[in-house]
Amino acid sequence: MSVSDIEQEIKEIYQFELSSSAISRVTQRIMEDSIAWQNRPLDVVYLVVWMDGIVFKVRENSKVVNKTIYLSIGLNREGRKEVLGMWLGKSESSSFWMGVLTDLKARGVEDILITATDNLNGFTQTIRAVFPESQTQICVVHQIRNACRYVVWKDKKEFTRDMKQIYDAPTKQAAEAALKDYGAKWGKKYPYAIRSWEDNWDELTVFFDFPLEIRKIIYTTNLIENLNGKIRKYTKNKLSFPTDDALMKSVYLAINEATKKWSLPIQNWGIILNQFLAIFEKRVRI
């Protein structure tokens, strides 16, 4: 709710008036909590970190502009998910993500085993500049959307069915064979789609290097997109936010509400932990 919304609700329900300035002073406590949360120390190691951005409209200099809240979710060594932070910037870019990653490092993160991201240009190089040993998996769902962007409607069903043979393959070698067949069939008609797979192949197929249980949690950014959807649910009544602070307060409260049930380890955690220990033992036990 905006300050004016709160002012009106108090007046209607309790029959007394509270000024906008008084309400702002009260709600400023939320900002203090948000700043403390944003600057809290983090774990030394995260097994997986998912990163994505969500766009909002904010008033700035008498205009409504798009701004991005950058979010990152970490999977810690106890198998629990936690939102590592939120950062406000302009349109999503790899240069801004550099600042996000640097902030994570300053707050105590020394290593990230696997990062799961969209296919933002330059993202992988940015991550490696800060966490050089991290392996980056580009979200396969984002890739499917990008590949289908210019496909005509009548071809989409067959096109996506053939594409599924790539990411559903049992091994990377089988996936490469499926991509070759896919290119032979669709390459002339939709060269962009084939090229987008080829250009990002190494980062799109990192998940093939891991057991099935780990594959399922890293091959998409669905986890963080689900969080984005819940944030949208809690903020949908606002077409635009009057200030950056108003946006940050609202998103902070939405994150708190959306993550209340994040108290248990992820499904099959015992199996997944043993797999991580087998592959990254020295880095997990740091």
What does the secondary structure layout of this molecule look like, with pairings?
Layout: H1 3-14, H2 20-38, E1 45-60, E2 63-75, E3 81-89, H3 94-106, E4 111-117, H4 123-130, E5 135-138, H5 140-148, H6 153-167, H7 172-186, H8 191-199, H9 201-204, H10 212-218, H11 222-235, H12 244-258, H13 269-284
Parallel strand pairs: 1-4, 4-5
Antiparallel strand pairs: 1-2, 2-3
Task: Describe the protein's architecture and organization.
This protein is an alpha/beta fold and 286 residues long. It contains 13 helices and five strands. Strands 3-2-1-4-5 form a five-stranded mixed β-sheet, with helices on both faces. Helix 7 runs antiparallel to helix 8. The longest helix has 19 residues, at 20-38.
Count of DSSP-assigned helices: 13
User: What do the pLDDT scores average to?
Assistant: 92
Fraction of residues in helix: 40-55%
The stretches of 5 or more residues where confidence is low (pLDDT under 50) are none
Structural class from helices and strands? Answer: alpha/beta
Give the strand order of the largest sheet, numbering strands 1, 2, ... along the chain.
3-2-1-4-5
What is the terminal separation in angstroms? 44 Å
Outline: globular
Count of extended strands: 5
Q: Tell me about the largest β-sheet.
A: 5 strands, mixed
Compressed to H and E, one letter per element, the order equals HHEEEHEHEHHHHHHHHH
